[in-house]
Amino acid sequence: MTETVVLSGEAKEVALAEAQAVLAMVQDDDRRFRLASLVAAASEGRVDGADAQSLEELLELGLQTGRVRALYGPGGEQAALATYRKLPAGAGAARAAREVSAALGSLAGRQLDAISLHVIGPGAFTLSVSAGGLELSVRLDRSGARIASVGA
C-alpha cells in the first residue's frame, strides 16, 4: 500500500490542475471516477492508494512529454518531480539509480578498457563498461536504469 503523500504549495497546484485538466477531457466513467477522487484528494493536499497511483500516472505523462514544464515553468516542473519521487515509481527509479551508481562506482580508479552502447529495441539500450578487468552492463529503458550484468 502506498504511503500518504502530502501536497502543498506549487506541488499541490500542479497536481490539482493536471488532474482537473485530464478530468475535463475523459469520457470513460471509471477513469472519470478515479480522476474525480484524485481531484478531491489533491484539493485536501493528501493522496494515497488509488489516488497516488492516478497522480503517478499523470505526473509521469506530464513530465515525459514536457507538458508540466511548458504550462507551469521550471518551478512547477521541479515541484512535480519532487512529488513524483515520493510516489512508488519515482522512489523505485531513485533506488535503481543509486544501485547503478554504486556499481559504476566500483570501477572508479580503474583504467577504462572499453565502453559501448547497444540498442536493444525501441527506447531500450545497454551500456557496457570494461575497466581494470571488471565488466559491467547497465540496461536503460522506460523502466529506468538497472544493472544487467557484472563480471570479471
Topology:
Blueprint: E1 5-6, H1 9-25, H2 29-44, E2 46-47, H3 49-65, H4 67-86, H5 88-105, E3 112-121, E4 124-131, E5 134-141, E6 144-151
Antiparallel strand pairs: 1-2, 3-4, 4-5, 5-6
Helix pairs in contact: 1-2, 1-3, 1-4, 2-3, 3-4, 4-5
Explain briefly what this protein structure is.
The protein has 152 residues and is an alpha+beta fold.
Give Rg in angstroms: 19 Å
| Total beta strands | 6
**What is the total domain count?**
2
Q: Strand order across the biggest sheet?
A: 3-4-5-6
C-alpha end-to-end distance: 39 Å
Strand content: 25-35%
Secondary-structure element order, N to C = EHHEHHHEEEE
Q: How is the main sheet built?
A: 4 strands, antiparallel
- Mean of pLDDT: 93
Report on this model:
By secondary structure, the chain is an alpha+beta fold. It folds into two domains: 5-86, no CATH class; 103-151, no CATH class. The protein contains five helices and six strands, in the order βααβαααββββ. The protein has helices at residues 9-25, 29-44, 49-65, 67-86, 88-105, and strands at residues 5-6, 46-47, 112-121, 124-131, 134-141, 144-151. The strands form two sheets. The protein has a four-stranded antiparallel sheet with strand order 3-4-5-6, with helices on one face. The chain has a two-stranded antiparallel sheet with strand order 1-2. Strand 4 and strand 5 (134-141) form a beta hairpin. Helix 3 (49-65) crosses helix 4. The termini are far apart.
